[in-house]
Description:
Blueprint: H1 4-11, H2 17-41, E1 46-54, E2 60-70, E3 73-84, H3 89-102, E4 110-115, H4 119-122, H5 128-135, E5 140-143, H6 145-153, H7 158-163, H8 166-174, H9 177-189, H10 207-217, H11 219-228, H12 240-262, H13 270-284, H14 290-296, H15 298-301
Parallel strand pairs: 1-4, 4-5
Antiparallel strand pairs: 1-2, 2-3
Helix pairs in contact: 3-5, 10-12
Amino acid sequence: MLGEDTEVKLSQIPLSNNTISDRIEDMSKDILAQVVADLISSPAKFSLQLDETTDVSNLSQLAVLVRYVKDDVINEDFLFCKSLTTTKAAEVKKPVDNFFKDNSLSWDMVSAVCSDRVPVTLGRESGFGAVVKADAPHVIVTHCILHRHALAIKTLPPKLAEVLKIVDCVNYMQSSALRHRIFSELCKEMGSECEVLLYHSNIGWLSRGEVLNCVFAVRVELALFLQEHQHCHADFLKNYEFILILVHLDDIFAALNHLNHKMQGGGFNIIEAEENLKAFETITSDFPLLDDCVRSKIYLESETFLYPRNRSKQLPRT
């Protein structure tokens, strides 16, 4: 396509495994050197975001991201990722200390540290925050607001938590390729709004809201499918109150997901965060209680609620 001359030039480029890996490593070192230089020259102190998690090979990994000011613009960059032998607070802090030492950084240059929901990073007496404050008392330690929402979901009232059992139905169907294909064909034949249900994941903090949204869209098809396969939860989607609570939860998660999306992004600052939170409080101040919805059947009288979507919320009467 490019001609013989181009072919000859391309053939002269060394493409051995070592060459490619060396180039990737050199590029990585150059990017890191640029980020460190920006941190040192930043007119303001930088903040850190720590996320301790377990990968697919059951190894504990510590990922650290940095937020800093450069040319009057807030930048966010990935700083480093290190494996952890243990998840004790001192062991979590050690890779950060070593990185600072190797790159001429110090805790005096840090203004705040935000951690995830892992208990070792949150303990007041022996957690990562306490260990950091022992060396740098000025550092502000916070808990990620998105993880707070994820934790709040685990303490739902029994009536609402009961509805989340529908997630078991979704995972039951998605865990089998055959059941997945059969359900997809059923949705096509019935002209459904969705043809594929989303697989629920406890790790994904937006997962529940998206799953419930899809379940409501194909509630009739899903009820038929579960009944045909004699699933233990097949009667749930025939219960009027269950579906009403499902819609109520869907709107709650939609509101939280909408807020979570707006609380992220490059250049996002504390002023914008406060404005979004106040707007969220204003919108949800008129959010009806579940018991009021059951008594007044509010979802039967309105096709949209708080966050309208292209769907009808006319529920079947039983």
